[in-house]
Specification:
about 300 residues
Length: about 300
Amino acid sequence: MSTAKVQIQSGQFAQLPNGTRLHYASAGEPGRPLILFVHGFPEFWYEWVAQLEEFGTDYFAVAPDLRGFNLSDMPIDPAAYKARHIVDDLQGLITMLGYQQAIIVAHDWGGAVCWNLAIALPRLVEKLVIINSPHPYLFMQALASDPVQQAASAYMNWLRQPGSEQALEKDNFALMEGFFQGMGQPPAVWFDTDTRSKYQACWQRGLHGGVNYYRASPMHPPTSQATGAQRLELNPADFCVQPPVRIIWGEADQALPASLLTGLERFVPDLQIVRIPEGGHWVIHEQPERVNALLRQLITS
């Protein structure tokens, strides 16, 4: 593996068979093994800049903007953000890039989508690495019946409300930045002036796509207006994950506690978990070199 830093190319677009146009950044040479990095909320491809620089040396490393974020298509209708549509986008992207399979690394909402991808289309996934994103069945159970998780996820119901995107835009995106500064962690050192300007440029392109992920999903705590996860009657046998799964979990995450890992081995036959006790929800930003080292280890294990 070369130690020279590779150049990241952004401004690339894939017109997918389903009609969606996705923007993506990449590093490394097409034809090498594909490693796909999938961001969450309220982020975009730049979440993975340190990983693109690292893995572009020996992989074709690709980080898309998911539908609804940054430079990718941003439908208005919340129904366009149901998980099956985002899974279809990723399947189309892998195919458009000329591959039949990818190593997938995903965080937060990206992880939620990629759990579903690995369940529905296991042939596409050589290995799945999840960073602080719960397995859908276990998350459903916690949202439906665990008061601690319901309280930790109460923000999801706020984001589902009409006008949440306008509230997030106020005062120069003060509430958006609060996502990075909160979750039980000290002020985000990584969210420096340069990074802030990049995120604000992304958010200025529109926030309705990102919050529509929450509106489209039944995975939220129950309220008097919407029963959310309590109304779901899911068969656990439908949520087994056949590809190998590797987990990196920041245990100081206040929204997604490490208790969400309990029972995961029921659904994943080939599973390894690495816990970072002091790591928060944004551990990718907090400890990029450590995360890169762990990814190297887990991808080859």
